[in-house]
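dumping these here so i dont lose them again. two proteins, back to back, each one seq then structure tokens. dont judge the mess
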Amino acid sequence: MMELLRNIFRFYKEGFSGMTWGRSLWILIMVKLVFLFLIMRLFFFRPAMEGLSEDEKVEVVVERLTAP
């Protein structure tokens, strides 16, 4: 099992070290993912129950779970 993991790690290590354009593309992909998951979440997708007390949150969850 350990030999298999070493071979897989070696395969990816050699593949990524030999990249020229691929490394730039992976950096671009990572920047886009950070943008999508962090920046857009902060500005566009606010939590639905923001500003409610704990009791109000419990009531909302119970209503949504038991609604027909």
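---- next one ----
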Amino acid sequence: MVFNTGASLLDAIVLAVVSRDEEGTYGYKITQDVRKAIEVSESTMYPVLRRLQKDDCLQVYDRECGGRNRRYYKLTPAGEAQLSLYKEEWKRYSKKISALFSGEELA
């Protein structure tokens, strides 16, 4: 991808991925799902997950899987609210950028 992904956009993408499963999902799967949209390394993802947890957007819990604990992430009410804000801002932002690319005048 030729465009840089800022922290806010990455946060929004992670929250969107996590929101798809009500029970939550684990870090490796989050990374794989995010990679379907943008290029990102695992070493980038875990600090994002920790920051979103610190900001009370993600609840974290462990679940046993194959004799080992797997860390799961689930949206909190604050995370759901933040994702809604990101979605609204994305609609406005992408509409303006698309208009510029297609040669439309912006109001």
